[in-house]
Known about the structure:
The complex is a heterodimer of chains A (about 800) and B (about 240).
Chain A: H1 2-14, E1 22-23, E2 28-30, E3 33-36, E4 40-42, E5 47-50, E6 55-58, E7 76-79, E8 82-86, E9 93-97, E10 107-111, E11 115-119, E12 121-123, E13 128-133, E14 136-140, E15 143-145, E16 149-154, E17 159-163, E18 166-168, E19 172-177, E20 181-185, E21 188-190, E22 195-200, E23 221-224, E24 227-228, E25 232-235, E26 238-241, E27 244-247, E28 252-255, E29 260-263, E30 277-280, E31 283-287, E32 294-298, E33 310-313, E34 320-323, E35 325-328, E36 332-337, E37 340-349, E38 353-358, E39 361-370, E40 374-379, E41 382-386, E42 389-391, E43 395-400, E44 403-407, E45 410-412, E46 417-422, E47 425-429, E48 432-434, E49 438-443, E50 447-451, E51 454-456, E52 463-466, E53 471-474, E54 477-479, E55 486-496, E56 499-501, E57 508-518, E58 521-523, E59 530-533, E60 538-539, H2 550-553, E61 554-555, E62 566-567, E63 577-579, E64 584-585, E65 588-591, E66 594-597, E67 604-606, E68 611-614, E69 619-622, E70 628-630, E71 633-637, E72 644-648, E73 657-663, E74 669-671, E75 673-676, E76 678-685, E77 689-692, E78 695-697, ...
Parallel strand pairs in A: 1-4, 2-5, 3-6, 4-7, 5-8, 6-9, 7-10, 8-11, 9-12, 10-13, 11-14, 12-15, 13-16, 14-17, 15-18, 16-19, 17-20, 18-21, 19-22, 23-26, 24-27, 25-28, 26-29, 27-30, 28-31, 29-32, 30-33, 31-34, 32-35, 33-36, 34-37, 35-37, 36-38, 37-39, 38-40, 39-41, 39-42, 40-43, 41-44, 42-45, ...
Chain B: H1 2-17, E1 31-39, E2 49-54, E3 65-66, E4 75-81, E5 83-91, E6 106-107, E7 112-116, E8 121-123, E9 126-127, H2 131-137, E10 146-153, E11 164-168, E12 179-180, E13 189-194, E14 197-204, E15 217-221, E16 230-231
Parallel strand pairs in B: 1-8, 1-9, 10-16
Antiparallel strand pairs in B: 1-4, 2-3, 2-5, 5-6, 5-7, 10-13, 11-12, 11-14, 14-15
Amino acid sequence: xxxxxxxxxxxxxxxxxxxxxxxxxxxxxxxxxxxxxxxxxxxxxxxxxxxxxxxxxxxxxxxxxxxxxxxxxxxxxxxxxxxxxxxxxxxxxxxxxxxxxxxxxxxxxxxxxxxxxxxxxxxxxxxxxxxxxxxxxxxxxxxxxxxxxxxxxxxxxxxxxxxxxxxxxxxxxxxxxxxxxxxxxxxxxxxxxxxxxxxxxxxxxxxxxxxxxxxxxxxxxxxxxxxxxxxxxxxxxxxxxxxxxxxxxxxxxxxxxxxxxxxxxxxxxxxxxxxxxxxxxxxxxxxxxxxxxxxxxxxxxxxxxxxxxxxxxxxxxxxxxxxxxxxxxxxxxxxxxxxxxxxxxxxxxxxxxxxxxxxxxxxxxxxxxxxxxxxxxxxxxxxxxxxxxxxxxxxxxxxxxxxxxxxxxxxxxxxxxxxxxxxxxxxxxxxxxxxxxxxxxxxxxxxxxxxxxxxxxxxxxxxxxxxxxxxxxxxxxxxxxxxxxxxxxxxxxxxxxxxxxxxxxxxxxxxxxxxxxxxxxxxxxxxxxxxxxxxxxxxxxxxxxxxxxxxxxxxxxxxxxxxxxxxxxxxxxxxxxxxxxxxxxxxxxxxxxxxxxxxxxxxxxxxxxxxxxxxxxxxxxxxxxxxxxxxxxxxxxxxxxxxxxxxxxxxxxxxxxxxxxxxxxxxxxxxxxxxxxxxxxxxxxxxxxxxxxxxxxxxxxxxxxxxxxxxxxxxxxxxxxxxxxxxxxxxxxxxxxxxxxxxxxxxxxxxxxxxxxxxxxxxxxxxxxxxxxxxxxxxxxxxxxxxxxxxxxxxxxxxxxxxxxxxxxxxxxxxxxxxxxxx
Amino acid sequence: xxxxxxxxxxxxxxxxxxxxxxxxxxxxxxxxxxxxxxxxxxxxxxxxxxxxxxxxxxxxxxxxxxxxxxxxxxxxxxxxxxxxxxxxxxxxxxxxxxxxxxxxxxxxxxxxxxxxxxxxxxxxxxxxxxxxxxxxxxxxxxxxxxxxxxxxxxxxxxxxxxxxxxxxxxxxxxxxxxxxxxxxxxxxxxxxxxxxxxxxxxxxxxxxxxxxxxxxxxxxxxxxxxxxxxxxxxxxxxxxxxxxx
Lengths: 823, 245
């Protein structure tokens, strides 16, 4: 007896401790009744088979925390390996939520190289019965009903093949995002409350990742197993850790530029997650430099989860520093509790989670998070995000009870949420939130300001605001979101000075909204400009509705009895000026109403791969010295009735603003636009474009260009110093009117590629046509009208420069401006 | 018979493993009994844990006394000479009983101080937790840091990028100072988070700073302060800004 007790004591002493969601570490079969009370993870290489007749009951999550390998706060079955659901007609497999209060679990989430094969499966009570994040589903005779989403497939690698299935009684039936392929052979998709089937995609925002010039250091390797450091320990060169290195509260770990810290894979509990890591209770100073970053990575392999984390726990007596570092392949790159940390010029990539912290004070300056399962998750902390980029992750930023200050950052191209904030406070300014599945999702905030952001092309709602108070949404550009631009549910907010345009569903959707929607530009949304669900009215005075019939543009109690009313109040005749506050255009932007381009040290740049589409009737006003430099495309097609105007925001004199410069664009278009008070209205290099129906007025110059091929037709050049200036032009200039310019057309050099025909040259103050001193080629300028003797400077005046071949001149001016109202 | 042959060596082996196991019963004059339960964060009993008693507040050394390891019910009992003790409970995850705690070891945190009278029988429970659990549970013990910001300038007054600000209580610290800022930006701006009180600040082009460095600016801190510019000495050239070390 004593012997046994002693052995029991010894065994008890030796038993391991474990605590986490269920990781299925080997091929497993579920059968009979299965109760799922926590997240389930099927890793790569593992097959979970669910036998015929199995009933899987999934319970609500006990907490809202999300371990890094998962993506939902609700209980989920995450499949990165394979799942085979082998129901039969007589004995289907059921997945259902415990209890009956609606959406109880997340669903089956399939990510990475995961694949689900399902026959005769019935899935209900989930957020999404099946969610494919770039993964695969083959389903036969399955039923997805009573979920929020029946099926969500996202990403170009996502493939869903449904045959003889039923997707009914969900809120949304089948949603395919960003190029996912869904086939529905003999599949019934009906009676879903909002949407049966929809395909939505957005061109990703153009985000250039930070480059890290990491070079493996030479020299000896310091190796650590489980170790505790004392005093100040300095690491440089190569360090390999197999185990946990602890830095107690009286010690510091200092890592010098160029060091490589690699972690050997150790997995004592067989869950596929590496356990080697660093645990800091003292302080860590990882001070890389631009030319010599510090690298933290797995000793071998490149997937996520090969090592644990840099844990910083209870370290708040100084500022821990992570600078110019690359952190990859971790379970959590950075993990903090009760810590103070500044992270700058650092990249977190290919981790399960980039950074996770609570009760901490953290700043991210110039930090990239990309290709992680989730980028940032935090609670009960103070967080500052500046000039950082969170892109191409499964989930972006997820915060709970955090005081957030985010500015000049990009949150884009994340497969699920961009920015999710629950409780806490937020100040979000001058950020780009684009091409995520949801843009900004706010719930239960008690204070927040969202100012001068661009919320663009998110696949569902741009800004979703629920159960929140004290929210101000001002000066934002909310465009081209595939769902609603802004959606309020049980919220109190004021929204003013925003551009809400070209969204896929409604511009603004309000359900129990107490607040004011005032002085906004709401136009060109594919659904209604504003719509009400529920019985509460919406105050919406003094907005500009794009000149539309406002009554027709809103959906309220006039249309559906019992719903609240949109109280229009006054209607603005002119749009409000909304500033594009970011320093670049990285998306296919839409400008409508009146857009202000503020002064900045350099012109506003439209990066290659991005574009600006200017809607008819738009006014683009440039501050002193401001301009636009387009490496992507500019599409500015006004109409005869609704011309586009590029003008000065300030003084009304020549050269009051810069220019619109277009470089090698292949798809730009400019028609029915007015350019006034510019230094140069347009300045093009190697751009094939037709400029038609435009007015270039009161500028220092109208159009300046090099090469082409260009067609400049049916335009008016009025009161400029120079109407057109060409340098090695490949251009046809035809049927334009040049009036009261100092020099109508100046060909600086290489004029042999220019043809000028059927133009009216009227009242030029110095020259109708001036050839430059370096131009030694003749210029074909036959068949034009001159209102007096042609004023031409060419080889006749200066031997050696080319001749303007005027040929037969027209006796009367042509009617070339029939599009002008006065004509 | 065979079992009998095994028991004695086994007991001897156990005794070697657990050299600090005190006598099981000694509540006669000069001694006291300490007993109770060792629990985890979920209030579940912990087996294989022990209570260690130190006769001074220096608890980072081998204990003066220790209880036998608790059993599955988490109960412990130890007899101690009367006196004052600093008590902690420890549950080791691995085989080693000594040395710094590892990440899966559990500990009761700050020692509890007791004064045991002769013949006293004191019941005291302990909760053990991992380092992570302890960090989560611990109330922030530090005073708030104050934020100090400014620019790092060259001797010519031009802002210097990729320099750093240093701070310490001492004007001439040896080794790396207590506080270091991130690298300054293109405008020379830096930020330090420092404890209140008197601090010495100075700039450095490299990190670690050159040996023999000093922190020439003395400042009394009781709140956030801005505009604290730090000037590099004449002759310090940004082109020479190596990686230090």
